[in-house]
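Researcher: I've been going back and forth with a colleague about how hydroxymethylglutaryl-CoA reductase (NADPH) might be arranged in three dimensions. Neither of us has a model we trust, so I'd like an independent prediction. The organism is Bowmanella denitrificans, in case that matters for your notes. Sequence below.
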Amino acid sequence: MFIPSILLKQLYNRGSLTNMGSGVRFSLKNRLKDAIVQEVSEIRIGGKEVPRDKIFLQLADGQTLPLAEFNSMGSHDFPLKSSLFVHIEQCQPLPQQKHKILVSFKASPFGTLKLEVEDVVTENKVDHNKVPRSDTDDYGEEIIQARQRFFEQFSDAKINHVGKYSIDPHSLQGNIEHFIGVAQVPIGIAGPFRINGEHAQGDFMVPLATTEGTLVASYNRGMKLFNMSGGVKSTVVDDAMQRAPVFVFDDARGARDFVQWIRENLDSIRHEAEATSSVAKLTYIDHFLSNKFAFLRFNFRTGDAAGQNMVGRATFAACGWILDHYKGIRNFYLESNFATDKKASQINIMRTRGKRVVSEITLKREHLLQVMRVEPKQIDYHGRVAGVGSFLSGVNNTGLHSPNGITAMFIATGQDVANVSESSAGILYSELTDDGDLYLSLTIPSLIVATYGGGTGIGTQRECLELMDCYGRDRVYKFAEIVGAVALAGEISLASAISSADWVSSHEQYGRNR
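Model: Here is an independent structure prediction for hydroxymethylglutaryl-CoA reductase (NADPH). You can compare it with whatever you and your colleague have in mind.
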């Protein structure tokens, strides 16, 4: 199996080269896929081969074997994300400078691999101000309590509520480091709420995690109004997650010719990218040329995962293949800030990041008057005035507060809350019908959500998804349709409150912590 050299180098743990008393240690981490190590044939440091009788290997299960015994056994599990520690005993400490390291080994399903990197020696000193960690079980109760005591001593305060949790800390590996406890955020429910989506069909109760008074009540009011009109139509119209590397050339012509080569080799690039995942599908690559730079925007579908890490790994593998097959590249960065990860941007509004969701409804005049005490024309006119304010301020949202509901749902269901920065974009549109009713539509162009992976499987977060039948595979479009519909309910509720002058009085009644 072909492994690009840039990807192969990622097996080495940067900063792991350490002087350890009478020896030296460094480590490898499997960032490719589950593998079996069959033999380690050669290790060199600074160009000199390390004597085989001085090499000891520590496996993922903690067992340490001399090299000869390790090789004679011929088969050692090397699971994805696990580490293999290399101990070199009875050797002089390495000077604190950059050293070349070579490791040659055989592993299934990759074949013979030769890893060559450079690293600087790190001194193995005890730091008494360092957060306590355990190399064997960093999510056990003993080490968690040690960190809690460390934090209490450092801050001269007591941990009480933070340390009370119902989830198994071991389930949090890959979600958090230095775990000491939980943040408890109140959860309220709004609904029932009728949604007429392609995937979300029926009545839903929606969990909203927030500390902002009136928020749940406001969304609940909007849902009540929508139910009177038969529910809201919600549709996922596009799906894309990006990683955007940049390639540097000697001149603009070199960058232009490179983009043409990318077009001609798209099938090979797609094969390398998709080989890293059973889920990620490379749909297309955008290109943008500036100066002597070629910016590529890899667009993937990522199934039920949000997919940032997935597409990062896939794009990295694809770029490794590109670097090994195209001459003339002077520099390369996996992320050029053009995917605008965790940042609002115009390109995501135009080209989609995550799910592009449109939610829409036609509201009867009599229902608006009955529930919201406003005429359709008041809402429509208010929207046009607010559109001028949106333009003058340069915001990425022509609506009022869609990130309120989105954030509350994100916290409740274990989404990456920082993705609200992209998901905050919204395009609100209204028009009066010939019958005097109000058509209202909200487009969320970059809604980044998941129903599988990340934080969605943790305790309360999984529960909240399950309460909407949105946990697990083949559920992400359903969840996206619900989020879009909820956001629209919040828009009509707040717009009506402002237009009817109920806004301040509602906060006085519900939002004051007296």
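Researcher: What would you highlight for our discussion?
Model: I'd start with this: Residues 251 and 292 are 5 Å apart (CA to CA). After that, consider the following. The chain has 15 helices and 21 strands.
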